[in-house]
Amino acid sequence: MRKVGASAKLIYSTRALNLELPVQWKFYRQQKIVGSSLEGLRAYVVLRNIVVMSITRNNHYVPQWYQEEFFDPGRNTLAYLDLSPAKRTLDNGRIIEGRSLFDAPTSRAFCEKDLYSTFFGTSVNDEIERRLFGSIDVRGSKAVKAFAGTDPVEWHRHFQTLFEYIDIQKIRTPKGLDWIREQYPELSQNELMFEMQGIRAMHCTIWAESVREIVSAANADIKFIVTDHPVTIYNHALPPGSSGAAYPLDPSIALKASQTIFPLSRDFCLILTNLEYAQEPSSHPTEKRTFARNFRNSMVRTDAFIRKRELSSVEVAQVNFILKARARRYVAASRREWLYPEKVVSAAWAELRHVLMPPKDDLWHFGGEMIVRFNDGRTYFQDPFGRTGTEREYLKKPTPKTPLKDRDLCGCGSGLPFKSCCKPKPVALRTSWTEVSIRERNMMFLNAFAKVLDLGAGKDWLKVRQELTDEKISKIYSVFEGLWPLETDLLSLLPKPDGTPRAVYTGHIHPATITQFALGASLYFGELLIPHPFVNAATLQPKFRPTENPRAYRHEFLKSALFFITVMPLVEQGLVNLVPDPCDFDTHLRDQMLMMATKRSSWTERDIRQDKAARELFDQDLRRSLMSMPREVILAQIRKVSPALDEAGMEGVLRGLETLKQDDPLAVMQEDEPSIGKDGGQLHLMKLAPNFEMAMYLAQATGSAIVTDNPFRWKEIKRAMLRLAGMGLPAFSRNVEASSFLFPQNVLDIEQLAYHPDFAAFPSLIGEALSYLARLKSDASKPNFENHLAARFSRHHAKVQTMLRKSRVPAREAALHCAFPVGGIQHNTVNRLLLMSSSERHLPNVPAAFYIEQKEADPRSRAP
């Protein structure tokens, strides 16, 4: 730094730029950057102006170059209409309204101060405006101009850029940013900018697969207008203000009848229509289109654009009417009279759909199956909706021809009567009736599982293990893969946040530990969602697939199979829901989840060593691997450890090992082949699942609490609560944590106890607590209700524990720790994952979490 005069070269401190005006001037003088004279003050003013001008704070959310596409020839201004002009109260109390109609250059319109700025203390950063939108606008302007033209080569060159630009234009406006805020409980400005960038390109795949039409107003007396939210979504069943379309919401583009309108210029407008709706306009308008999945690869024709429709003036006015109805505050046009399409349009909202429908005789350009062969011999298949596998007809269910009666089995596949299941739920909160449910798929898998392993009457588990072959292992994994194709829409099959008491279990997915607390927890928390033990072979590389390399999965298969057999009685009863990994069906979700987990994870090697349960499971798997080694390898190890042992002694050791194998239900009875190298060995998976992100994801998607018996998962959950202040239901929480809980160990006992009237009331009580916590705000507690809930818990708990002790069923005693933070357990990354997964019915946070901690036996109670 050095002292400068008014005309000297200015060198300034970045620290000084963060200070307020008078303080900043004082700092400059103290640092001898400027003098204290009038000349020094003038230098300060120059310096301040340089600083202010160097930061772009007036952010155009509709770029100036785009607005210029709507100029009349020879003009450089537009007419702007303010739909909500500012009001001012005069001294005499009279309220006057500001100008609603005015002409202005593009530099003064569709802009807002600090819309994209980020703040660090008093420092303002404009990198999002300069770097992100600067680059996008340069490329986007070329793409928009290309598609206003007729050169297919230019369309191909700018195809991807066009949809990237439309996507970011949809979310960069004030309405788009308000929509993002709506998806999260609370966002700061910096967090809002981060999330805006995190969901970029979310709509591109569905748009690219749609029917693409560019209509012309070149011969009409009325031209297209531009609004402060140019990317407009129209659904004839969801008029403005209706549920799902009230500000700041737009109808989801994934809905069948949702059409996207984007004017390219005053003369051309892009209209994107979902293929199913274009082919069958009578289809249900608010149902999701087939395979409505974001962030995936797809193959489309870049030259397929319908460009033959010339709209009349009335038709252009109808499009403008829709654009204006979806605007936030401002609309603009090259002529003032075009800003009032309602003076021309008299059709009802639903009738406007006809002007947007592409011509039927040109739909042949879109859809159809694609089969591509590459130079290396690989082939690629894609159906009309972007799926890379053929549709499984056996996973479809016909819609009931007549309305179900109260006693009919519910169409969702729960196995319950319609009256007790879906009847009281809104249609939006029901699981799919047109696809085989999760429970039904698990039962189909059980039937195939039993058939392949020949689980006949009287056949014990030892016999099953002895007869196990690699062919049977491969066939069972192949069946599982067939029941869960990669195109599965898991969210449509998962239960919704419908008020039913349920919980997501996260912990060790192992048959030796699942019966300790998890299965018994269903008696207290209601329906329990547990990760499925079987891996989906289609998600792995061919050389690692159990269908291709079943020998490596012998140990893992036995663990998964015994887990599955143990849990299935509770699945059939509806107490447990075995759910596959959501990441199996969404590679983008998996990539994002792994990236987030890597950034968040604080696990150390020391933490893993301290996980007693994991260490024990690992040691057991190691012993089983040693027991299944080839005979000559085991004999070599015996000679090494006990060189003095004779042949008879060695045979005795081998017989002992064989007895141990027979007594261990997870030991492989077949002798492993003596193979060495990358294709040899056995695979052992340690599953602490789902991880933190997926547990939160499933809990919010299904309206569940989280239950764990793992101390490290509990530590992760508590860490997500660090920013939250205050705990809800204090009396209820104290009563729960001061109590002891018995968890039955036998599945048959759990089945019977679920029907006991004392236990039947317990999940409902927990469900009421969760519903209350989901709505609880820091200043809206209800002390009377909270105390009533705590008293009810104490009464029910005492009854249940007394009944369990009298029944003498085998049980483990544990304490229950509660997490009831006001505002719930929330992490922006999880809300982003749900948003990117096209989830439309999920909680903004997880209302509660519970940690089951086993109580150590009292040494004084042990016999001497």
Task: Describe it.
With 864 residues, the protein is an alpha+beta fold. It has 29 helices and 24 strands. Helix 23 packs across helix 29 and helix 25 packs parallel to helix 28. The longest helix has 25 residues.
The radius of gyration is 33 Å
Whole-number mean pLDDT? 88
Helix content: 25-40%
Structural class: alpha+beta
Low-confidence parts, pLDDT < 50 over ≥5 residues? Answer: 1-29, 31-35, 44-53, 858-864
Distance N to C terminus:
82 Å
Q: Please outline the major beta sheet.
A: 8 strands, mixed
Count every helix, treating DSSP H or I runs of 4 or more residues as helices: 29
Work out the number of β strands: 24
Strand content: 5-15%
Shape: globular
Secondary structure layout plus pairing:
Blueprint: H1 21-30, H2 38-53, E1 58-60, H3 64-68, E2 78-82, E3 87-89, E4 95-97, E5 101-104, E6 111-113, E7 118-120, E8 123-125, H4 127-148, H5 152-172, H6 174-182, H7 189-198, H8 204-208, E9 211-216, E10 226-227, E11 232-234, E12 259-263, E13 268-273, H9 275-279, H10 313-325, E14 330-333, H11 353-356, E15 370-373, E16 379-382, H12 438-453, H13 461-466, H14 470-483, H15 490-493, E17 502-508, H16 518-525, E18 527-531, H17 554-573, E19 576-579, H18 587-600, H19 605-610, H20 612-627, H21 631-641, H22 647-663, E20 688-689, H23 692-702, E21 705-708, H24 711-719, H25 730-737, E22 740-744, H26 747-753, H27 757-775, H28 783-807, E23 811-819, H29 828-836, E24 849-854
